[in-house]
Amino acid sequence: MSAASRAPLRSNRTNARVRRRAALTTGAAVAALLVSACSSGGTSGGGGQTGFITGSDGIATVKKGDRADAPDLSGETVDGGRLDVDAYKGKVVVLNVWGSWCPPCRAEAKNFEKVYQDVKDQGVQFVGINTRDTSTGPARAFEKEYGVTYPSLYDPTGKLMLRFEKGTLNPQAIPSTLVIDREGKVAARTLQALSEEKLRKMLDPVLAEK
C-alpha cells in the first residue's frame, strides 16, 4: 500500500478518535448538569446573612429573634387551583421544593405524606413548590403515584424560589425543605432529601414553640 493510500486511513482513524472524545466530553457535561439540577445533599444556600446555623445532619435553624419573613408565595397550583401561603399564617408551614424528574424527590415523597397525615390536625400545613416540570401533567402523575394530598404551587421557572432572601435557598439544590413558623418567618431549612425521622426532627422544635 502506498503512502498516499495509507494517509486517508490514518485521517479517518484520527477523526473517529476526535468524535469519540467529543461525545465523551458532551456526555460528561450533560451528566454534570443533571447532578447540579437534582441534588440529594448540600448545605450552602449561596451567601447572604440569613442567620442559619447548620448542624451535622444538614438541618439549618435560625433563632426566633433572627428569622426573616417568608416572601409572597402565591399562584397557580399543580391541580389548577389558586393558593396563597400567607393564608396559613398562624400555622406552621412545611414547604417542600420538588420536581417529578428528581429521584431524591421520589425517595422522600412518601415520608412527607406520612408526616403530614400525622400532624395536619396540630396546626401544621404542608405545601409543595413544583419546579422545572414543563407542564403540570408529570407533576399530577407524581402526586397520584406517591399519594401526595397536600397542595403544590406550580413554579416551572423557579421564580418563587428566587423571592427568598439571598442565602435561604439554593436553586440548584432540589429537593429543599423549609419550615415557616406561625408568624410567617423562616425557622429552618435543609437542602437535601429527608427521611421521615429527619423531617420530624426538623419540624418538631418549631411546632413546640409557643
UniProtKB/TrEMBL annotation:
Keyword Calcium attached: no
Pinpoint the Thioredoxin domain residues.
62-208
Provide the primary localization. other
Location(s), subcellular: Cell envelope
Kindly state which keywords UniProt assigns to this record, in alphabetical order: Cytochrome c-type biogenesis, Disulfide bond, Redox-active center, Signal-anchor, Transmembrane
The protein's matches in InterPro entries, at most eight in alphabetical order, are given as: Redoxin (IPR013740), Thioredoxin-like_sf (IPR036249), Thioredoxin_CS (IPR017937), Thioredoxin_domain (IPR013766), Thioredoxin_ResA/DsbE_sf (IPR050553)
Q: Which PROSITE patterns match?
A: THIOREDOXIN_1 (PS00194), THIOREDOXIN_2 (PS51352)
The record's annotation in PANTHER family points to:
THIOL:DISULFIDE INTERCHANGE PROTEIN DSBE
User: Can you say what this protein is called?
Assistant: TlpA family protein disulfide reductase
